Every structure is written in C-alpha cells, then in structure tokens.
C-alpha cells in the first residue's frame, strides 16, 4: 500500500482570523473549500506547492469552538531555505506574529511560532520544497515500539530518520520512495512515561491511496481499527485510528481538487 500524507486537519475558533493569519504570514493560498450545514473545511498551501506536497486543512464548526489543544498532537513544521531561518523568523516577528521560541533558543536549528488558536508551527531549514511548505507533522506516542509497528505494518511506512536525546526520541516515517517534498510523520516518545490527551483542536491526518476499498480491506486484514468504513462515508473516504487514538483519514485523491 502506497499511502503518502495528503493533509493534516486542525480545528480553529475563528476561520476568518485563521485564514488571514496563514495567508498573511505564510503566504498560503486557498486550495479548496467544503461548506456543510454544520462546518466549513478550507484547504491551504503555498501557491507554488509541489505536486507531492501536503496541504493544511482548517475546520470551523459553526456551532462550537475547539476547547482544548491537547498534547497528543504536537505541531506542524514548515520549510525555509538553509541560511534563512533567522531572517524568516525576524520577518514573522515584524509582521506581528507572537515571539514563542526563537532560533537562538533552539540552537539555531529551528524555531517555533503559534497560530491564533495556539497550534504550534515549527520552522525548519530545508534545501527543498517551496517556502513554508509542510515538512512534517508531529504526534506524541506513549509506546514507541507499538507506534513504529503500527505505521510499518498497517501503512508500510519506513523509518527514515531519528533523533535521540537523554529524555526523548523522535522517529520520522514516510512511505517507501516518497518524494522529499512530501510531508513526513514525526513520532515523539518521551522517556518519562507521561500520558497524553487528544483535545479537540487537532483533528486528523489524511493519507492518499490509489483504491479506497482495496486499501481499507488491507487495513482490516492487518487488524486496523474499523472506525468509519467507506460505505459509512458515502464511499468518498474512510477513517481509522492508530494504536493510541490519533485519527487517520483515507481518501483516493486530493480533496482540494474536487
């Protein structure tokens, strides 16, 4: 099964404010929109997005606001060219973005900002991909062995990188042969045995598959969670959970092209 990451979804309290923030500060443009009776989904990304690049989905529920960011979801990461980390961070500060974790405090390897709802955005140095394109999305896991096994067995992802420190480890996962411009998944495992809460401000990860029914059947054979099968979703998409409850959507094509 080849299932590259298609998008990452997070919920926002004020859609107009969030759209203004992402279009102003990251120069994102609207790639697509879905209006339903009770919610609105908007898909965003760089104007010159790579064909393999993932997009950001902002979801606004019409009758409620997200109540808790939670800590089982960590952050999204966006790319800036090598040598431009400080320049781009200063540019964001000059544009009115709140100072959260500057490059110096992060060893000049990366930096962090927050959007209006408190979603963390890491700025990473990369020599590929359009400016501010999605590099990876990070989720925290309570059992690294199970999480690595889940993504390896269920979705045939490969372990392509790691960072180990005294207190935590990061593991990066992508499908085999995925272009470097695609979005990777970062699994973060803290050694202190802490537990995490999902909250409701983060939604799900989405993977793109060639044949929805065939991919779903493979997942069921591999004993994935039968959360919402294709028939329950009008054969447009489906949902499963990973071993720790992070929600994963399957869809056949980029929803932004519908």
From TrEMBL:
It holds the Pfam family Glyoxalase. It comes from the Archaea. Residues 4-126, 133-253 form the VOC domain. Coiled coil: none annotated. This is VOC family protein.
């Amino acid at each position: 099964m080849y299932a590259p990451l298609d998008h990452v979804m997070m919920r926002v309290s004020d859609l107009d404010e969030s759209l203004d923030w992402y279009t102003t500060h990251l120069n994102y443009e609207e790639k697509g929109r879905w209006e339903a009776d009770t919610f609105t989904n908007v898909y965003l990304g760089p104007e010159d997005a790579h064909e393999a690049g993932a997009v950001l989905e902002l979801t606004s529920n019409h009758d409620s606001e997200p109540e808790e960011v939670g800590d089982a979801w960590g952050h999204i990461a966006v790319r800036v060219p090598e040598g431009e980390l400080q320049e781009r961070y200063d540019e964001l500060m000059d544009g009115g973005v709140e100072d959260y974790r500057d490059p110096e405090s992060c060893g000049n390897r990366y930096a962090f900002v927050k959007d209006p709802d408190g979603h963390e955005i890491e700025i990473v140095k990369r020599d590929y991909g359009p400016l501010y394109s999605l590099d990876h999305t990070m989720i925290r896991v309570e059992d690294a062995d199970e999480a690595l096994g889940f993504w390896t067995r269920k979705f045939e992802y490969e372990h392509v990188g790691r960072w180990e420190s005294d207190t935590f480890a990061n593991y990066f996962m992508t499908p085999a042969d995925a272009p470097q411009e695609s979005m990777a998944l970062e699994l973060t495992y803290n050694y202190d045995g802490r537990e995490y809460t999902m909250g409701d401000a983060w939604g799900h990860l989405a993977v793109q598959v060639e044949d929805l029914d065939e991919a779903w059947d493979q997942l069921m054979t591999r004993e994935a969670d039968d959360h919402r099968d294709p028939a329950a979703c009008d054969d447009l998409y489906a949902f499963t959970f990973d071993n720790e409850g992070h929600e994963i959507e399957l869809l056949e094509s980029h929803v932004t092209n519908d």
